[in-house]
């Protein structure tokens, strides 16, 4: 199977996620995922709400970005402290690597799909994305 350059981006993000998850463990990976989901909801809700407060698109974008970062940090801190109470086990690193690899794979696939959607040259021909589309 010949891989396209976009497939290497997907694999690099999955590998980087696995290595990161190996060091932060499952509790850290879970906290990161919860923070990312919370930040996504904050951005989704914050953008329409900010229209009545800001006239400038740049000021609106900066305000939503700062709010999103704040929500990410708060959710990650709360979930991280809650889950960190569990005793550390050898399986924590393994499950952290698996969870972070899946998150990295999902981020990579989403990034390549977005690049194809936007028509960025070099993003077409992803074998991994085509295999995923065939099974979904």
Walk me through this protein's architecture.
The protein is mainly α. The chain is built from 4 helices and no strands. The protein has helices spanning 5-50, 57-83, 90-118, 127-135. The protein is flat.
Key features of this structure:
136 residues; mainly alpha; 4 helices; 82% helix
- Per DSSP, the total helix count is 4
How many extended strands?
0
Strand content: under 5%
Unreliable sequence segments: none
Q: Multimeric state of these chains?
A: single chain
Quote the average pLDDT: 84
Helix-strand layout with pairing:
Elements: H1 5-50, H2 57-83, H3 90-118, H4 127-135
Entry summary:
With 136 residues, this protein is mainly α.
């Amino acid at each position: 199977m010949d891989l396209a350059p976009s497939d290497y981006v997907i694999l690099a993000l999955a590998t980087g996620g696995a290595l990161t998850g190996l060091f932060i463990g499952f509790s850290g990976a879970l906290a990161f995922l919860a923070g990312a989901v919370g930040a996504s909801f904050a951005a989704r809700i914050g953008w329409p709400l900010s229209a009545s407060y800001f006239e400038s698109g740049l000021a609106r974008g900066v305000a939503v970005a700062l709010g999103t970062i704040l929500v990410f940090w708060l959710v990650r801190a709360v979930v991280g402290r809650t889950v960190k109470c569990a005793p550390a086990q050898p399986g924590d690193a393994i499950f952290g690597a698996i969870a972070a690899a899946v998150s990295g794979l999902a981020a990579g696939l989403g990034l390549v799909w977005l690049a194809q959607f936007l028509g960025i040259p070099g993003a077409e021909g992803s074998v991994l994305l085509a295999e995923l589309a065939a099974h979904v």
